[in-house]
Specification:
Structural class: alpha/beta
Oligomer: single chain
Number of helices: 6
Shape: globular
CATH architecture of one domain: 3-Layer(aba) Sandwich
Largest sheet: 6 strands, mixed
Number of strands: 10
CATH topology of one domain: Rossmann fold
CATH class of one domain: Alpha Beta
Strand order of the largest sheet: 6-7-8-3-9-10
CATH superfamily of one domain: P-loop containing nucleotide triphosphate hydrolases
Order of helices and strands: EEEHEEHEHHHEHEEE
Strand content: 25-35%
Length: 231
């Protein structure tokens, strides 16, 4: 289980304090698909960054199966990210001069996966996402949807317990967004815990188990995640 307790993040901007998160309490169960919605600047991305161990809270606790993130060493945090967490962003963040296969394989360099296994696992993950005929293609030769699938394969090749997705369809058209949302649903049904941050109220609405709304750094409401729910 992931437990957030009185989680606060304050940024200093000159003489001004920006409360990106303000006392957030949230539990995420193993295997849950949680959708986090809210306007730009509501704290969604900050929440995901803290859960990923990419930033530290000003106060509060993030309890994970590996321990409290704020009490971990830099080495323990790196191991947590390598073993537990996969991340997908709005920007695909692919290396332009590397092939799809190489982009995914690079994500395994900082894990305990033996060299002989990396290429095979990267290829198998891409094939599972429908990219068997795109392994040797570079990002410029792929559509936006295909690039996002490569980015997703890069996150999944580590075989993480939890997928953190930050506006993963923000650069995609509606049909491609729907396809990615369906893919998230399939992954969750296989047991993957997913935290999806989005401002798109339709994205993953039929797949998410629960929806929470953020406003001004606080949780402002909760719904079932189904169409018509009022989070």
């Amino acid at each position: 289980m992931l437990r957030l307790r009185e989680l606060t993040k304050i940024y200093e901007l000159g003489h001004q304090q920006i409360r990106a998160l303000d006392g957030v309490n949230l539990d995420v169960q193993p295997g849950e698909f949680l959708r986090v919605i809210g306007a730009s600047g509501s704290g969604k991305s900050t929440l995901l960054s803290l859960v990923a161990g990419l930033d530290t809270p000003t106060s509060g606790r993030i309890e994970t199966p590996d321990g409290v993130l704020g009490e971990m060493s830099s080495r323990e945090l790196a191991a947590y990210r390598a073993r537990r967490v996969g991340m997908v962003f709005q920007s695909f963040n692919l290396i332009s001069h590397r092939t799809a296969l190489q982009n995914v394989e690079l994500a395994l360099l900082f894990t305990s996966v033996p060299r002989a296994v990396r290429t095979r696992r990267a290829a198998e993950t891409l094939e599972r996402l429908g990219l068997a005929d795109r392994l040797a293609h570079r990002p410029a030769d792929l559509s936006g949807g295909e690039q996002q699938r490569v980015a997703l394969a890069r996150a999944l090749a580590k075989q993480p317990d939890m997928l953190l997705a930050d506006e993963p369809t923000g650069n995609l058209d509606r049909d491609t967004s729907s396809s990615i949302a369906q893919l998230f649903g399939e992954l969750n049904r296989r047991g993957l815990t997913i935290l999806l941050v989005t401002h798109d109220l339709e994205l993953a609405a039929t797949a998410a188990h629960r929806t929470v709304r953020m406003s001004y750094g606080q949780l402002a409401g909760e719904g079932s995640g189904l169409p018509g729910a009022q989070p």
